[in-house]
Amino acid sequence: MKNLLHILEGRLEALPVRMAVQLPAGQRLGARNAAVTLRFRDRMALLALASGEIGNVGAAIVEGKVALEGSMRELMAAAAGLLTGNPAQEPGHLWWRRVLARARSMAVHTLQNDARHVQFHYDLSDDFYALWLDPRRVYSCAYFCDPGMTLDRAQEAKLDLICRKLRLQPGERFLDIGAGWGALLLWAAEHYGVDATGITLSRNQHAHVQQRIAERGLTGRVRIKLRDYRELQVQEPFDKVASVGMFEHVGRAKMNAYFATVRNLLRPGGLLLNHGITAGGVDNAQLGAGMGDFIEQYIFPGGELLHASAVLHDMAQAGLEMVDTENLRPHYARTLWAWSDALEAVLEPARQVLLAQVGPERADKALRAYRLYLAGSALGFERGWMALHQILAVRPDGNMGSGTMIGAQSVYPFTRDYMYTTKDRTPCSTNSSPDPRPI
């Protein structure tokens, strides 16, 4: 025990923030005027702290074995200092973990399990999410094309960027896989005049979107289905497809089949925009230092991340040609900090909402888990442990074109200018000077 305390004292002294630890017996280590204090009721959690297993410390906080005092931003700065290595870089000799992870992925991602996993997260409480998301409830990375914009405007900018990348045109048939609370569906229909179909596995989201469609007078032109992408049957393929924040739930073992299914849902010459979280490391099966296990247990059971190179490999194998890829990693760090700050500002109202929904024990655990998840994810995107890629792909139609479009094999522009040519409704101006500050 003395050796452990010695290690802890050394770790605390080296941190970039003032941090203190109170032991189960009451002894206190670390800074006197601490910005962050952890009060331990469990000795195993102390060992996790000393060894840099910050995900396991997070689990102990969720379970009530460690009490937290201080801001989430200060805690995350301390967490980064406690790590003993890069959690996105798995040692090469642990190749067998990747083999086991693929086998587990194949077994886990059944229709029934995927539906249960989605409902575990997204059906927690609509009112809870409404407290800290923007008014449209866009639960994915925003696009801060102007560094001074609010989260609300940055989410609108993201919705419009997706529509522009897809070159949506009036009357086109548009599919949104994993439609969430319907923000992209409604934006595409109202601003681009498409005939829009969304699918989700969340019962709460399905009911919410149905209500929004009726309220906005879009019945007949916009629809939402409670359906798995593998079970979607259509008489005519779609002109354009978007998948936003969904393919993280597919699983590495099913990724090739996922893109093959999407290809079959898309007409020849049609475009796919796949927007999703990717791994920061090339080979790691999940984040190390206990963080991957934390996410699996408390936030996204069944969630799996692939490096962008693996995603592009599976996409190409399925017969989809990547025509543009953009990494919005720093945008997601800023988005997550906005969500984290918003939740921190309404902790008691959030607790009351969860109490009414799931009862006291699960409410307190869920609130602690989400506080750590949002702030921890923001840290992860800041440090490059995770990334966010928008990948635009086409299903080639074999038409070699003519004139300046010879060789295109699809009606796709030769330059990216059209993606960033904004219209009056968008919050970004192409005439503004770039801001050198990081986002």
TrEMBL record:
Family of the protein in this entry: Belongs to the CFA/CMAS family.
Organism, scientific name: Acidovorax carolinensis
Leader sequence residues: none
The keyword rRNA-binding belongs to this UniProt entry's keyword annotation: no
Name of the protein described by the UniProt record: SAM-dependent methyltransferase
GO term, biological process aspect, one: methylation
CDD domains attached to this UniProt entry: AdoMet_MTases
Entry keyword annotation includes Methyltransferase: yes
A GO term, aspect molecular function: methyltransferase activity
Keywords: Lipid metabolism, Methyltransferase, S-adenosyl-L-methionine, Transferase
Gene3D superfamilies: Vaccinia Virus protein VP39 (3.40.50.150)
SUPFAM superfamilies per UniProt: S-adenosyl-L-methionine-dependent methyltransferases
PANTHER family, A to Z: CYCLOPROPANE-FATTY-ACYL-PHOSPHOLIPID SYNTHASE
